[in-house]
Design a protein that fits this description.
With about 475 residues, the protein is mostly helical. It has one domain (about 35-235, about 260-465). Helices cover about 65% and strands about 0% of the residues. The chain contains 23 helices and no strands. The longest helix has 27 residues, at about 440-465.
């Protein structure tokens, strides 16, 4: 994907750096040698769960059959995840948003300012949509690399990924929170345990908002302090990467039959109909407007905005075609996660794990246990949505027995499951495609952020759980 030109070893720095920068450079150089392909994590997860099932005295035949039977169980959810990526890209690549990116890229004057600004906007946009965050941040880094001389491309790329590694699940595209608020997306077995959990009991808890703000402050500070000086930086030029602005113009229409492709008429008419529908969805929702904000509604909003901002069908379809390669990992890996889901839910593993969770925890320690477990499991299943489907049945069962607020359990999961994203390459794929890097190029700085995030996230998950009263399931 790229050919580095004379990388500068951490041990032979051109200019002496302070401790945090040296540590970040060491981790970055180390990660370039050791990180595998994302599919390895999914396949390894299947093997691990299979052997866990054997240890819990489950039949090998039943594990295999239930896993295979559920291979296609997450197809609707997989498509929803793909559409988040598509919706994020078609909005981020519109001329209006791209002009905003270029205006922001003119603000920072030093590499540290540039990397910190990338980190901030990566996290802020991830609260709207993680798909938008990846694309917006990738284009932002590309513009900054062209404008800010001496900016370390690895540090900026890692900062662009902070939205996915820090706070995305605390925002409106949280797969777990949206799933629990969307009955049509929930497996019946999960709904029978918890019922619906509205967004007012997850994303919009004051404890959730406070956690998000704290994580943003810490993340931006670490990104700023760990950025190397221009003398020790690995710039985009050192990777042989050339600046490529987004094309805003269309090819000249050459055939009479193409006139509708170049006319805004259809985009306007279809977007108007979809807006009409969306207004009705929010207006008629029996539980209020927030309850109507599920995954399907959310994705439709982004597609509708993309239609309007691209203005012409030709430009809209070009944007869709450009982002489709970034969805390949989701399409092939989610069915393997469904195999894990089938082995856990379709056998006695879920009930056994729920009993283990109850037996080794109390009302006060359960939030911390969920946080640690969710972070560890995320190493093998780097998908907040599919992992929640796997984890939720026994986690929520145990939460009900311990009478821990179910909505905060979802948010504990959201805050902690993002932690392994900082080092897991799966969701980096769309960003890496834009930056023309490999996961191992930016994971080192992710490790640095992870070291800081782990104690902060675990402490906040435990602390805030003490101030939210238990509410029985809403069925």
């Amino acid at each position: 994907m790229h050919m580095p030109q004379n990388p500068q070893p951490a041990a032979q720095l051109a200019v002496k750096e302070h401790g945090l920068v040296r540590f970040g450079l060491t981790l970055a150089n180390w990660s370039e040698r050791w990180f595998p392909d994302p599919l390895v994590f999914a396949l390894l997860g299947i093997v691990v769960v299979f052997f866990v099932g054997l240890l819990l005295h489950q039949s090998p035949a039943k594990l295999a059959i239930q896993g295979g039977k559920n291979f296609w169980a997450l197809v609707p959810f997989t498509m929803q995840m793909v559409m988040i990526i598509v919706g994020g890209y078609v909005v981020a690549s519109t001329p209006l948003v791209y002009r905003a990116i270029r205006a922001l890229a003119a603000i920072p004057k030093t590499p540290r300012q540039a990397v910190a600004l990338v980190a901030l906007f990566s996290m802020l946009t991830s609260l709207i949509s993680w798909g938008l965050s990846l694309i917006f941040s990738g284009l932002f880094v590309r513009e900054l690399a062209h404008r800010v001389k001496g900016m370390d491309y690895r540090a900026a790329g890692a900062a662009a990924y902070l939205g996915l590694g820090a706070v995305w699940a605390m925002g409106l595209s949280s797969s777990a929170a949206m799933l629990m608020a969307t009955k049509s997306s929930m497996p019946p077995s999960l709904f029978n345990i918890s019922g619906l959990i509205p967004l007012t009991q997850t994303l919009f808890l004051w404890q959730s908002i406070a956690t998000t703000a704290i994580l943003i402050v810490f993340s931006v500070l670490i990104a700023y302090l760990s950025t190397p000086s221009p003398e020790n930086a690995r710039t985009a030029e050192s990777y042989g990467i050339q600046y490529e602005p987004i094309r805003s113009s269309l090819e000249v229409r050459s055939k009479p039959g193409e006139w509708l492709e170049y006319s805004p008429l259809l985009n306007i008419l279809v977007a108007t109909l979809l807006c009409w529908y969306l207004v009705d969805v929010f207006r008629t929702s029996p539980q209020g407007a927030l309850a109507a904000l599920d995954l399907n509604t959310y994705n439709l909003m982004f597609i509708t905005i993309g239609l309007l901002l691209h203005w012409r069908p030709k430009r809209f379809m070009r944007a869709v075609a450009e982002c489709i390669p970034a969805t390949g990992g989701v399409l092939i890996q989610f069915p393997f996660y469904a195999v894990i889901f089938g082995m856990i839910v379709g056998t006695g593993i879920a009930d056994a794990l729920a009993k283990v969770f109850v037996s080794i925890s109390t009302h006060n320690t359960y939030p911390l246990l969920v946080a640690i477990y969710s972070a560890v499991l995320g190493v093998f299943i780097p998908s907040g949505g599919s992992k929640w489907v796997i984890e939720a049945p026994y986690v929520l069962q145990a939460a009900i027995l311990h009478q821990v607020h179910l909505g905060w359990v979802v948010q504990i999961y959201n805050a902690s499951e993002a932690l392994p994203n900082l080092i897991n390459p799966f969701w980096m794929l769309p960003l890496l495609g834009i930056l023309k890097l490999k996961a191992r190029d930016i994971v080192g700085y992710g490790v640095l952020q992870l070291i800081v995030h782990i104690p902060v996230v675990f402490f906040l998950c435990w602390l805030f759980a003490r101030y939210i009263p238990y509410i029985p399931p809403m069925k």
